[in-house]
Fold these 4 entries.
Entry 1:
Amino acid sequence: MSNNSDKSAPPLLTAHGLTKTHGRTPALRGASVELGAGEILAVTGASGSGKSTLLHCLAGIVRPDEGAVTYGHTRLDQLPEKRLSELRRTDFGVVFQFGQLIPELTALDNVALPLLLAGASRRDAHTRAGEWLERFGVLGQEELRPGEMSGGQAQRVSLARALATGPKIVFADEPTGALDSLAGEQVMSALVHTARESGTAVLLITHDAQVAAYADREVQLHDGAVVPLGVTA
């Protein structure tokens, strides 16, 4: 697939030599990866290969034990938590496998929440949230709460929430993992179309080859390290 990234431009996000251990279990063993502006990158690998840990390090959710994560000219792994939280509200959007919408809030309020946190007025936040719900094909579901939505509806609301603030990067962790194949295709089509329109880079974690095929490029994790595609020995 074509993308909007400039091949000659420096990477938007770079990870080099990341290691991370959970207890006594190594999750990352020297993982390195680059993401260009406007690029859709799929990170694939078997369950337990370190994919989600890599995403969490790249998004500043957890700190690597060793290695560097650089966003533009900023070392994310050296930033204080307050600054990382700000970046996740402004520059980064995160989508999890099960959406993690706030169950007490309607679809409209879930999407409006990051806009309100960024300082938008309630009226403006709701107007923009409605526009994003329309872009993801869930207009008319504004007053539904997560428990009243289908899995595909909830995931599209999650994508609308992640993109509503105009992030530079969306981190999507198995965004179709809880969906049937048709709903998964609809979610991925909506994500890719919207990312292309807005020039947003996407780091996509998936174990599904059909989902990875939506990306411009694919890298593979095996035992916590990035390896050439098809090489797992």
Entry 2:
Amino acid sequence: MSADLGRGLTSLFVVVLVAALTPVLVGLLSRLRIPQVVVLILGGVVVGPHVLDLADPESIELLANLGLGFLFLLAGYELDLAVFRQRAGKLAVVGWLIAVALAIAVVAALAELGVVRAFVPVALGLTTTALGTLLPILRDNNMLGGSFGSYVLAAGAVGEFLPVVAIAIFLGSHGRFIGLISLVAVGVLGLLLSLAPRLGRGGRIAQILSEGQDATSQTTLRWTVAMLLLLLVIASDFGLDVVLGAFVAGVVLHRWAPGNVEALDHKLDAVGYGFFIPIFFVSSGMGLDLHSIAEAPGRLFLFFFLLLAVRGLPTLLVYRSALGWPRRLELVFVVSTALPLLVALSEIGLETGEMLPENAAALVGAGVLSVLVYPAIAVAIHRRIARTPDEPGDPRP
């Protein structure tokens, strides 16, 4: 066995052990109501190179990227595109555009002061929402039910998808025009994939897929993973962020999911949340540059506050006629939570040399802190609302 393979297996074992211990720890500390995502990230910090140095993040990078892919696959899968024709989708787009305008103004001021150098990555980072990261928390706390769930999913999807589109156009490795063409190409491919199953419906192939979905061949799950990897490869080859390919794969899968859809849901949850997604979260904690953050902690808290001010606070105004005050406040903290795209934007900024290392670390650190704090506040508000009678102004279909 080569030394690299041995190191990789050791790192993978440590990461998987952290993932396995997480639900046990969360159960033992059930009174504190700590989200599993938080424990996974903190566990990554502990076993990572900056603390105990028990695992090497580079040796599990491929599996972590697949975990990120599954995270956005499931986020796209939860999204019904019809919501964008409804009030929830329209309000979500308006809210995001206001956040973009605020981000441009704020980052321009920070650039003038010499605090930031990478204008576009930082500005886009302040407009993101970590819907994929939030899904486990939202599901565990029954926050996706009813009409309020449609507002949450729409706001989260817009805060995840539109920044990815902007990354593809403005930060693509082949330039803006090629990035736009590549983006259209991936979208067209996604559309074709969504139409393809209809051509074979009722035929012999469809019968084979249906018969094998619960057998050892696991046909529907295998084809789902194959589609995910295909779109990840194409997005990567086009110079786009792999997040885009994963999100498109989820949207496509939502439209054509073959066979027993409920059974496929359980299988995707098992493969994603059972193995790949925890690896991504632990890896994110391992990659957190604690040294840079310790040298300039003020930057972390600045970005942490700006995530709430730029992305969250416009929600209070945009949804004033749709949601009551407590629901709007709950949504503020939901949409202000960010992480995966902050990691991607920091990596892009460092690769191009535009982003200062201390800002890259602070931006990711702010994302981790947002995952630790903002969903917990949203959950507390949600539980308080659940204990009180329905209010006027609560969401209606």
Entry 3:
Amino acid sequence: MFKKTLTLAVAATTLAIAAPALAQDTGATIGFIGGFTGPIESLTPPIFAGAQLVVNQINEQGGILGGELKLISADGACDATAAAAAADKLINTDNVTGIVGALCTGETIGAFNGSGLSGNVVFISPASSAPALTTLEDNDLVYRTTPSDALQGVKMADLLLAKGIKDIAITYVNNDYGKGFADALSAAYTAGGGTVAANLAHEEGKADYRAELGNLVASQNLVILAYANASGNTILRQAVESGNFTTFVGGDGMVGDDLLAGIDPSAVEGLIATRAGAPTGEAVDIYNAFTADGFTANATYAPQAYDAAFLLALAIEKNGSAEREGLSDALRDVASAPGEKILPGEWKKAVELIKAGTDIDYEGAGGALDFDEAGDVDGIIVELAVEGGAFVEKGQIQ
């Protein structure tokens, strides 16, 4: 759905008590860019809570670089221009070391191109899933902890075909996320023998999409690739009112409580959705047991945000300073084999191993995080369905 970004701040200087000279504080600051306003505002707070939990855990276990880890958030509004301004503040005023974010793909690209590249800042996005991120010219600075929509599109196609859905109409929000997802879905669905009766973009922010829906009635199976509390909700509500569609399908951007606002739950019972998931195993079990104010372990992209923040902090500790130089190499080092496994929450153990010169390999809430050359990770996609007015996860799509 979205794309990668991440930032950490340099430590400030303070006057040591009863000392005649200034001393450099230890610790580090990282940034978070996400759409706290705009089309994903209902999805962003739980994602941010995943990153904040990491900061709390690290500080409870002795901190980073011998001092406190701080997290500064900024609103990217799921918009490239707003994200560029947010990144400029975090990078050039707050002097963060690296950034978790952004979330929407265009938001991540705008933030990185605005100040990230020139500032030599590592970005780790927990949610930017558009294929466009793979080919971004980034000097090995942009990573993501969620799989690309190149995978999600294929898995959605597989799921629909397995359910016997032989034709679909697609409407997608006209941005990197929507187009990339729609292209991947259309190609895989057609290759699998399905028929894409229509595949049309729509613009965000309109009050009326009835004309667009009128161009999609060649199939009764409507796929909406948009955002839950923006065009996704409006299109779904007006599609239900039209009576022209019997099956509704959405991508990860649609998985939010706001999607069903103003819609009779019985009218969308069984709505199909997909999003990034996590494998079974000890790392996932540990993560799912975490509790904190505002934190929901299985919220959309919360596990990926936790992993992004934990990896960024590990890379800073491995790099030995809050400087940006060398952080990308350190990130690849702590995220990949060989090395002793570090699981969610095992910050103190990781620091002790790093200080002892022992290689580590973080295995996260979203699974293994071995970045490829482009900064992408493999992953799994899960199916969800609306049951009784709420999204219920049904399992991994094989």
Entry 4:
Amino acid sequence: MTLMSSLISAQNEPVKIIEDFKASTVNQPGQEYPQVNSQGYARFQIKAPDAKSVVVSLGLGGAKGGTELAKAENGVWTGTTAGPMDEGFHYYHVTVDGGVFNDPGALNFYGSTRWESGIEIPAHDQDFYALKNVPHGNVQQILFPSNSTNTSRRAYVYTPPTYAKEQSKRFPVLYLQHGWGEDETAWSNQGRVNLIMDNLIAEGKIKPFIIVMTYGMTNEVKWGGMASFKIEPFQTVLVDELIPYVDSNFRTLANQENRAMAGLSMGGMETKTITLNKPDVFSHYALLSGGTYKPEDIKDKSKVKLVFLSCGSKERPDGVKNAVTELKNANFNAVSYVSEGTGHEFQTWRRSFKELAPLLFLNKK
């Protein structure tokens, strides 16, 4: 056999799956499945004795494809992904004879405009969002009045561990937006942003700040219809209603210099539009898999303290890098970050936030 034929033969050989599967860390209490192994494969098991077909659809809206499960004599369907999954968190749902359901073994997370099952693939760098024995901040729900929508709206507010103790201290604020199909729970539940903050603060890597997360889909837009999204209703909720409420009810540094806005995916689109529309409100801008800025987009560079752009290596990293190069050449404080081995998914955004947080409010009083 020639060297070339040996290489081709080796490439065509199926990967041997290591049988060290363990329950996913985001399973329902006491549930054995779904499972993940050290290679990043996921294994699912569903009991559906009368079903004719069971398929697990992975990713937001099933974008990562399906895994067909096989039925055993006891009516239990089992199947393993064809290959390893990217590290980090993934949505999924189960299709049984054409009907869409959640996996009863997994916890649910709001994505794809519905509560989806979730699975966590262990990451080599997962320590930065791990639950550790460090001082913890508080994530609290608030209901704030919204005259523009004629209702009370919900937001979640992260306050750092020292907030309750340092009664005379005021803090900068980051307004952090979720992506399409998600809601204000996403950054805490899927993104673990509060744990990332706690760990960075404990390590002395960042100056503590408040994070505010609210629902950005003020206009209900279906998948693929983002071109018809109108920013004005959400901009009114955020700038005219939520920010004044937060500044009145929390100890904030209530000025443009100490206020940032960031968002992932659709939240990045919202961030870009609102920061450009309202340059007197925010001074730090961050788009996580959410587009880019051009130097000519920003009319007064003196108002901008930071522009942070990021994405996964499986997205369009050259676009992010080139945009930051142009911004730097125009004398903006611009930073790019690319998450290696990930795409349009939460591991990209967890890592992006970890890189962003130490850059925020370096001029804080």
